[in-house]
Amino acid sequence: MEEGKFVEMFKPIRLGRVEIKNRFSMAPMCNGFVDHGSITQQYISYFAARARGGVGAIVSTPAMAYTGGSKLHVQNPNLHDRADIGRWNEFVETIHSFDCKVIIQAMSGSAGRQVPRGVPTKAPSAIPLRIKPENLPRKEEEFRVRRGLWPTNWDKFYGVEPPVELTIEEIKQIEDVWANQALLCKQTGADAVEFHFAHGYLAHNFMSPRENLRRDEYGGSFDNRIRLCINILRKARVLVGPNFTIGARLAGTDRLPGGLGVHEMAKIIKRFEDCGLDFVDMSEGCYEAANYLFPDEDGTMIPTAAELKREGVTIPIICANIHDPHIGEKALKEGKINMIGLGRPLLADPEYVNKCAREGIKVKHRKCIRCLICDRRIRNDLGIRCEVNREVGLEWCEPKNWPINGPKKKEFFYATDY
User: How far is CA 18 from CA 237, 241, 354, 357, in A?
Assistant: First the structure.
């Protein structure tokens, strides 16, 4: 490393045919800044602040397309047909103006097993979600107790009813709709599409031997369990052509007994690569292993990314949960990862990347404290806020209207506390 500077993280990289100016991407996170499924100016301004902050690529919140399954996350924008393209293009062109690439995350079908109590859903098999309190993030609970907040609302996922098993006809419709989202992404002017195949949602349910107990062409054997994703990738590649970049959000391991492990995930990724996959956006866990999805410690996912590479994965891997830039620089230099996926660090400090470039190894940035106020609000269908950055969600306002120096009102942060 050049003395006083980060080197590896500011090298360019190619994802398929797209060149990214540095090794930072903004990780996909729900923000709730939509209006009846449509992107708002608040949504665009929120991302523009991070693009201006120097990140090389932004992965959008999940773009939703609907089929015969259950409703998807109401906080996210639609990308279902051509009527949605115009507003997405405004988002894409705004981000491009900051020399930042746009990757739209696509999600279709249903949320699979991962829905709150009382919400009907469909999945590959009728296996209900079962979250254990001991598998929830520790620092979120510590923050709740310290601030005297009401109990965390993870309990809305307790006692969830079994999902309805999808029919073959419904599965094939999901494949077609999901693949068509790739074409819609291309038509918005985005640089790439990223299929959301992770975190206990529908595609993950199909791949998991723990959650897919079907006895037809979509269940049982390894080939059958990955058939949904394989068909989506193949159909998408036909629609977008050979040059448009396609990636996937995947859990390197779901951290559940009988679930997907690193060895099998590496095998899956290599099969996906044969179908035209250009990169992997990797994290870990799911709601039933939320302490791995939202870890309390830094850098916990790097060993999984490194293991995937040792198992023969050759396409670029974006790795999440790297808050400390020194940890990221070391992992890049050692070849354990190819890019850093910044989520909550960019909520806390949109200028994180610029500060790394300007200040080098002495970088002083506003740090995420892993309190999960951001996610707590999303679980209550509210727009995100941040405990350490009061400007989150207010980027669309004139700076003079930001209450940076105003009194800290509890309701500003804890509107979920009811």
Answer: 16, 14, 21, 22
Residue 414 phi/psi, 5-degree rounding, is: -120, 45
Whether the CB-CB separation of 270 and 115 falls below 8 Å is answered with no
Residue listed under structure tokens 């999960």: 372
Q: What is the rounded CA–CA span in Å between residue 242 and residue 384?
A: 37
Give the list of residues 6+ apart from residue 417 with CB closer than 8 angstroms, or none. 149, 150, 410
Burial class from Cβ neighbours inside 10 Å (0-12, 13-18, 19+) for residue 400 reads exposed
| Tens digits of residue pLDDT in 275-323 | 999 999 999 999 999 999 999 999 999 999 999 999 999 999 999 999 9
Q: Are 95 and 48 in contact (CB under 8 A)?
A: yes
Tokens representing residue 148 in the block: 């005297």
Mean pLDDT, the chain, integer: 92
Residue spans of alpha helices (H) in 222-372: 222-225, 227-240, 262-274, 290-293, 302-310, 325-333, 344-348, 352-359
Contacts of residue 98, Cβ cutoff 8 Å, sequence gap at least 6:
48, 51, 52
The residue whose two tokens read 């306002």 is 397
Contact 262, 252 (CB under 8 A): yes
pLDDT in tens, 151-204: 878 988 999 999 999 999 999 999 999 999 999 999 999 999 999 999 999 999
Where in the chain are the domains? 8-413
Query: In which element (H, E) is residue 342 found?
Result: strand 339-342
Residue 403 CA to residue 391 CA, distance in Å, equals 8
CA distance 32 to 194: 19
> What pLDDT is stored for residue 398 in this prediction?
64
User: What architecture is domain 8-413?
Assistant: Alpha-Beta Barrel (3.20)
- pLDDT the model gives residue 38: 93
CB 107 within 8 A of CB 63: yes
Q: Where are the beta strands (DSSP E) in 140-278?
A: 164-165, 192-196, 245-251
CA–CA gap between residue 47 and residue 91 (Å, rounded): 8
Rounded to whole angstroms, the Cα distance separating 189 from 196 reads 19
Q: How many CB atoms lie within 10 A of CB 220?
A: 14
